[in-house]
Amino acid sequence: EPSSHDSKFGRREYWNEFYKSEEEFSWYTGWEDLEPFVRDLVPCEKSHILIPGVGSDRVIVDMYDAGYQNLTAFDYAKAGEGCSRKLLGDDRVREEGEHHSPGVILLVADARNLPFEDSSFDAVLDKGTLDAIYLSGGRDKKLAAEYLSMAVSELSRVLTKDGIVISVTVACTGAIQSTFDSCDVWKQIRDGTPYITEDGFASNNVDATLLAWTIAKKQDLEYKDK
Fold first, then answer.
1. Which of 7, 19, 24, 55 is positioned for an S-S bond with 138, CB 3.0–4.6 A?
2. Ramachandran assignment for 89, one of left (phi > 0), alpha (psi -120 to 50 degrees), beta (any other)
3. What is the rounded CA–CA span in Å between residue 157 and residue 161?
4. pLDDT (tens digit per residue) in 161-177
5. Of the candidates 42, 27, 29, 61, which has an alpha carbon nearest to the alpha carbon of residue 204?
6. Higher pLDDT, 226 or 190
């Protein structure tokens, strides 16, 4: 971990203290604003979705109640996992191994070294976690880029061949864009420019930049190389 002088965002101690004082805190935007765009990109409610850095964000509760009930979420800090567990309540949480019942699996994990098997998830909803990972490098931008690259690489590993990453970002949009651009496995499907869903919802109503990628197919990689 970095020293507290270099970066607070990469320290479990900081996040544990943060969650003690912020038992419910929504990063950037809530589910009400995000829902049309998540449904546009991940229409199947049975999709297995990974939510990194879930912490005390209520979006996971609202997402579950909206029908997305095959969720796995983690936080870097134990207190963050605890906040999420408290927000969800026992009825919405299931333990690993309970494969035949709906619910959210919660755990403590590091996004740079995920404890999941390859091709475990259909989609990822990132809401400020990639921002925090880059910021955890502090003033050392080379280290920050390395941390972010490790996390993005892990996302490509744990996603299925048609998997999607949705990233809601404010603080480090350029760094996130550059990291995905530098990795050949991704095809960008939302680049932050305003767009309107078929149901008429405009993305510029979200108070953040909405980016999305899918795992590139062979023909996409061949086109990219030309």
1. 7
2. left
3. 9
4. 999 999 999 989 999 99
5. 29
6. 190
Please provide the DSSP assignment of the chain as one string.
---TTT-STT-HHHHHHHHHH-SS--SS--HHHHHHHHHHH---TTS-EEETT-TT-THHHHHHHTT--EEEEEESSHHHHHHHHHHH-GGGB--TT-TTS-EEEEEE-BTTB--S-TT-EEEEEEESHHHHHHHTTTT-HHHHHHHHHHHHHHHHHHEEEEEEEEEEESTTHHHHHHHHHT-TTEEEEEESS--B-TT--BGGGSSSEEEEEEEPPHHHHHHHH-
- As a three-state string, the secondary structure of 187-214 is EEEEECCCCECCCCCEHHHCCCEEEEEE
Nearest Cα neighbor of 192 from 215, 175, 169 is: 169
| Residue range 48-72: mean pLDDT, rounded | 95
Is the pTM for the entire model greater than 0.85?
Answer: yes
